[in-house]
Amino acid sequence: MLKTLTLAFVLSPGLLLAQVVINEVDYDQIGTDNAEYLEIKNIGTTAFPLQYLSVVMINGNNGGAAEYRTIQSASWPALEPGGYFVICANQSLTVNCDHAATPATNLIQNGSPDAIALIWTPDSSIIDMLSYGGDVPGYTEGTGTTAEDTNEQDGLSLSRWPDGSDTDDNDADFVIGCPTPGEANMLDPVNCVVSIGIADQAGVAPFILTTDASGEQLILRLDQSRAAATRINVYAADGALVAAQDLGIKASAQWSLDVADRGPLLLVQVVAGDQRWARRVVLP
To answer: CATH second-level architecture of 207-282?
Structure first.
């Protein structure tokens, strides 16, 4: 339920239990950037008064940090715990858009680097910030995210993963996922690119994947040209990490995972030294 709060409530200690974060950004599309949006999520335990929030966009060109756009409105409602608030360029092109901002094209700059900050207007303090395409001085949590939206493919967004997770490190918190404005972030290896924050290597992967006769055990056989520190990550179709295993420094190894009731699709990622591969598995 959306509601308006008085300033007295806004400044009460209960507000300390509420927190909003930049949860998802789609800043680049093929051709004209006219479907951009920014999603805010309340990850706290009390309603958050958005009418006292300002969204500030920062141009990080040439090592600077220049504000180029501010979006705010006294009419914005309170955002309930777990709720999402979407600011978009075009409501006709963005589902679940709560506020249509201007301009309708090139609303959010494309990085290299740029940043976005959520400002608490009563005292101008920064609540949350995201630096993308590099580090913007004064507007970076930890390290700027290395995940990048791209104009080479539609259907991608810069997404906090897991949904709403905040470790105060932009690079750790954001990956490329599926656009889900107003809904929980999702990594879907069927309907959009899954990077899990790590770019896939081209070429033949040095492992094969099979299942046992019952179809309940997934078997990975690794055979690399040289030994390397190797890790296996297994993700469900919604991007949830379901298993992980450090194999140590190996050239050859075998590993198995119980996949009963985990189907029908998994993404298996092998990270070996500075090499990374990801393969999809359709379970019987």
So the answer is: Sandwich (2.60)
Q: In this structure, what is the dihedral angle of CA atoms 172, 136, 118, 83, given to the nearest 10 degrees?
A: -30
The pLDDT, as a whole number, for residue 30 is: 78
CB atoms near residue 247 (< 10 Å): 18
Q: Where in the chain is the domain with CATH 2.60.40.1260?
A: 7-177
Burial class of residue 50, CB neighbours in 10 A (0-12, 13-18, 19+): buried
CATH number given to 7-177: 2.60.40.1260
* H-type alpha helices, 72-215: 170-173
pLDDT in tens, 45-95: 999 999 999 999 999 999 999 999 999 999 999 999 999 999 999 988 898
| Consecutive H or E run containing 229 | strand 217-236
Helix, strand and coil content of the chain, in percent to the nearest 5, comes to 10, 45, 50
